Amino acid sequence: MELEQQKVQQQNKAFIVFILGTLAAFAPLSIDMYLPAFPILTNEFHTSASMIQLSLTFFLLGASLGQLFTGPLSDVFGRRKPLLIGLSIYAVTSLLCVFTDSIELFILLRLIQGLAGSAGMVISRATIVRDLYSGKEMTKFFSLLALVNGMAPILAPIIGAQLLKFFPWQAVFITLTIIGAVIFAFVLWGLKETLPVEERSQGGFLQTLNTFRQLLTNLHFMGYVLSFGFVAAAMFAYISGSSFVIQYVYGASADTFSIVFAINGIGIVIASQVTGKLSESIEEKTLLLAGVFMSFTGGLSLLLLILLRVELMFILPSLFLTVSSVGVVNTTSFSLALQNNRNIAGSASALLGVMSLLVGAIVAPLVGVAGEDTAVPMGIVICISSFGAVLSYFFLVRSRKLA
Questions:
Q1: What is the spatial distance between Cα 292 and Cα 226, in angstroms, rounded to a whole number?
Q2: 195: closest CA among 82, 87, 84, 74?
Q3: Which of 142, 66, 50 is nearest to 103 (CA)?
Q4: How far apart are CA 71 and CA 207, in angstroms?
Q5: CA separation for the pair 290, 325 (Å, rounded)
Q6: What's the pLDDT tens digit per position in 75-98?
């Protein structure tokens, strides 16, 4: 009997990991799947590379701002209601993107898509993970979540590239519409509420502002936020610039780009799984430091190799190291930051997500400022961002030890 119960619990856990992993993957799905279409969209909308990258910026801006609302709302109303509303709006907006022929309208729709998709991103971290787990168990669960979440950047650009072989760019957003509708059904019928009424926040808007103030003035918490935020900025600089850099600067095909992108996505998955395993015997802060240095080492070597004008094959290891570090930093920083914030997990999770997407929105257009024919801006942004993560760790994460 106990064995059967354990099997049922394991099946439920697998289902939860799948659902939450897919929800957390809304950002990479919404971004990575249309990356191979950047050159096509430039011609389709008769605009510049920077304007197309602006559609990425506005999606990230919407996703970051949306989390400031959906995170606290999930602390007040529970996890399911805000999640279901966000998923429905996401699916509708994705469909509307199919019918636009204006770059301005397309950018606006991407902003709304980001606002709606933020519900899945922030609540997937607060739901179940912080509600039901703590300490090293939460770190291990985050590593499982990253395993599913990590499949998105692996599969999304490949799916996007294959769709573009047979269909116009609109097929990408039709696919996102279907994904949004399917996940809505899974959440509606398969995901129970995990935040009891008695544990919900009762303070309203003023309490929400006070909660954010409390978190923003917690230097230790902000150390985790900024460490992950800067590493995420390096990744978003890569995401924003790699399509043009690999296809235009280095002359590779869309298929080659999608393969390179997928390999780097595999690096995130491997890094997150190794981190989850190592957390059983190594302190999580030590693992976070290792991830931060992985990012900086990759970013610095990437910039130097770009300046030396080496061939594509020689810069790929640096890109792999930089992107893979996200798997380490994401897993450890989220676990450490949420461990002491159970009752305000939605708000804490929102700030973590906001910082990563907000810096992504800032750096995305910077990568294209020098045009489509150089990789130098991408290298500079990645290097500076990863160095910011190092500074955040030593001045904030270690502040408690130094005090």
A1: 11
A2: 74
A3: 50
A4: 13
A5: 8
A6: 777 778 888 998 999 999 999 999
Residue 194's pLDDT is 67
**Rounded CA separation 339/28 (Å):** 25
The set of long-range contacts for 304-307, using a CB threshold of 8 Å and a minimum separation of 24, is 306/375, 306/376, 306/378, 306/379, 307/376, 307/379
The length of the chain, given as a count of residues: 403
Asked if residues 201 and 72 have their Cβ atoms less than 8 Å apart, the reply is: yes
Half-sphere exposure of 174 (CA within 13 A, CB side): 9
CB 257 within 8 A of CB 239: no
- Check residue 54 and give left, alpha or beta (phi > 0: left; psi -120 to 50: alpha): alpha
pLDDT 10s digits, 316-333: 999 999 999 988 998 888
CA 26, distance to chain mean position in Å, is 8
How far is residue 205's CA from residue 368's CA, in Å, rounded to a whole number?
39
CB 351 within 8 A of CB 159: no
Q: How confident is the model at residue 304 (pLDDT cuts 50, 70, 90)?
A: very high
Mean pLDDT of 248-259: 82
Q: Which residue has the tokens 């992504």?
A: 360
Rounded Cα–Cα distance for residues 174 and 215 (Å): 39
Task: Note the pTM of the prediction, 2 decimals.
Answer: 0.69
Q: What percent of the chain has pLDDT over 70?
A: 82
Q: Which of 4-13, 179-188, 245-254, 304-313 has the lowest mean pLDDT?
A: 4-13
